[in-house]
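Data availability (excerpt). The following record was deposited with the supplementary files.
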Amino acid sequence: MVYILLFRWEGNLSGKVWPEMKEKLIRLVSKNAKLTNAQLAAMLAVSEEEVATCIAELEREGVIRGYHALVDADRAGMETVTALIELKVAPKLDLGFEDIARKIMTFPEVEAVYLMSGGFDLAVTVTASNFKEVALFVSHRLAPMDSVLSTATHFLLRKYKEEGVCFIDGDEDDRRSVSF
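Predicted structure:
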């Protein structure tokens, strides 16, 4: 007589969380940081303890850098202006783009700094109270920096989608259709 024993093991032998579970957890948390450990555990078919351990490990490793709410400033009645500023820079020997990027990201108006390919080297996202504040930021803080060769400022006029979230739900298009 042959017995076949089937079981579902819910732990891990090494004490480390499985890489596949880590990847799935990262995707879930990046889409919705409000999910509880219990919800995540149910979605991943693991224990809440494993989820908590994995999240703590990802935070410690710097994989998860923070949690934030995605706010619709228009609906919140916030008067802000967002600009995307492209920078052409001359990187310093042995420092590359890192040095200038680190200096730029210390300014409180700066939301993001990206190294880019193409005609410009860095893209900087800035939010301020009005157009004049952005203009002053560019002319008094960015442009005078040693490594900055040129800037191009683009103002965001309307946000349609950000981080996978649609910002135009329920808005009706009240323009008239024109045909020729």
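Summary of structural features: The radius of gyration is 23 Å.
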